[in-house]
Each structure stands twice: as C-alpha cells, then as structure tokens.
Specification:
It contains seven helices and eleven strands. With 254 residues, it is α/β, with parallel strands linked by helices. Strands 1-2-11-10-7-3-4-6 form an eight-stranded mixed beta sheet, covered by helices on one side. A three-stranded antiparallel beta sheet has the order 5-9-8.
C-alpha cells in the first residue's frame, strides 16, 4: 500500500498495482468474513459482476479457513432481454469467476429464469429482507454508478430494494470498455439493480476500483458533494466502507 486516508467516513487505500489491490482487499475481506462467521450461523454477501473485480475474486476464492458452506451469495444487478445461457449475464459471470469455485450454502440469482418481470424485483427484495446482507463487494462505474444506479435513476432514499432501470449512455459505453459487448447498440437497455439503500445496508462494504478509466469517477467520488448526481459519493456516509484503488485509478487524487 502506498497511501491510506479517510474521506468523511470512507476509508481509502491505494496500492501500486491492481494485483496488489485485489490481493489486499481479499485478505481484509476474508478476515472480516471469518470474524462474522464466528458470531453468526450464516453470512449473506452481495457480489458485483465486473472486470474490475477479477483480481479480488480470484484472490478471495483461494482464501483458507472460511466456512463458505454457511455463506449465502447474492448479486447486485442483471440485464433483461438476454437468454439465461448468455455469457454476459452477470449471474453467469459470477458463477464462472467465483460461485462455482466455492461450496456456498446457497446462491440467489437475480432474474434467474429470465422472465424480465417487475415481480422479480419484489421477489429478490423479499429475499434481501429475509436475509439482510452483511457484506457488499462492489465497484464504481465510470459514471460513478453503484450497481446499475446511474445518476439519472439513483435515489439515496429509494423506497424499494430492487428495481428495473434504463441504462444511460455512459453506462452502456462502459459495458463495451469492459469487453462485455462489441458495440453500444448490443448492450441491453433495461436491467435490474439493487438500489443504493439495498447496497449500503450491509454492515461492511469492500469497494474495488482499479484502472485509469475509473480515475475521474474516483475523483468525483471523493471530492464532489454527496449527491445522487454522483451515486458513489454515498459511500462516504457508510459507517464501515473501504475503497481500494491502484495507482491508475488514484492518479487524479494522489
């Protein structure tokens, strides 16, 4: 780690490389998870599906002495309009990267049947109410979104936990940058997302944000007023959130 500081309530840790960032974040997250499992029969975790999480997911999947069989997994967003077998569905991404590698108690897939109905929002919200998340593993979008809470749909006081939203243009462009789709035209227009209150209700948040294409978003996150115009600024209000950066993503704040 090359720098560590506090912005409002948000802890910020900066590392030389995204590999070091991912490994360190996984180590701290594993420590947190082991401690929770000492005091709870089950732990509920929300996972983000994005290329920015690759190093972290790879590292935490090989952490030792974690009772994964007492961990329930959720994910924070999912496209509509894609076949359930489509490789770019976030559930399929997470299954490949992490879920299939661990003996999890249960994985709760968002829009698992691909029905694309409002009823699925209520169903998934009910699961989160029944099993409130203890930890959220997340990233920040190029437009400062959390999950698919783009600035035009983000609501820090959202009355629901899950909703269907329309993706803004910068969000669609990011999906192309991340290698999810060849062109913006192929990115689905609508998606499910856990809302800001749903994500921030976890007791602990680990937010991994590597890469130069995230540098401006990181600057906004740490320097702009806390407002839904920049959804990620909400992290600065959380009682135990940590933002993990590499030198590229931190280049505008160092």
């Amino acid at each position: 780690m090359i720098k560590e500081f506090l912005k409002d309530k948000l802890k910020v840790k900066v590392y030389n490389t995204r590999g070091e960032m991912g490994t360190s974040a996984a180590d701290l997250a594993a420590q947190c998870l082991r401690e929770l499992l000492q005091h709870k029969d089950e732990v509920n975790i929300i996972f983000a599906a994005a290329a920015s999480q690759n190093e972290f997911l790879e590292a935490i999947a090989v952490e030792k002495d974690i009772a994964w069989n007492r961990v329930n997994a959720f994910h924070m967003d999912e496209y509509t309009g894609l076949p359930v077998t489509h490789p770019q569905r976030f559930g399929n991404f997470l299954n490949k990267k992490i879920f299939s590698k661990l003996p999890l108690k249960k994985v709760y897939y968002l829009n698992e049947d691909g029905n694309d109905t409002e009823a699925e929002s209520r169903h998934y919200a009910a699961l989160l109410e029944k099993m409130p998340p203890d930890i959220t593993f997340m990233g920040i979008g190029e437009n400062t979104h959390l999950a698919f809470n783009d600035p035009h749909v983000a609501d820090f006081n959202d009355p629901v936990l899950v909703k269907i939203i329309d993706l803004d243009e910068p969000c669609k462009v990011q999906q192309v940058h991340d290698g999810c789709f060849p062109t913006v035209a192929e990115v689905p227009s609508l998606a499910y997302t856990l809302t800001i209150p749903a994500l921030l209700q976890s007791k602990y948040i680990f937010c991994m944000v590597p890469g130069k294409n995230k540098a401006q978003a990181v600057k906004y996150t740490l320097n702009e007023s806390i407002t839904a115009k920049y959804p990620s600024t909400s992290l600065r209000t959380h009682s135990d959130a940590t933002l993990f950066l590499d030198q590229d993503s931190a280049s505008l704040i160092l």
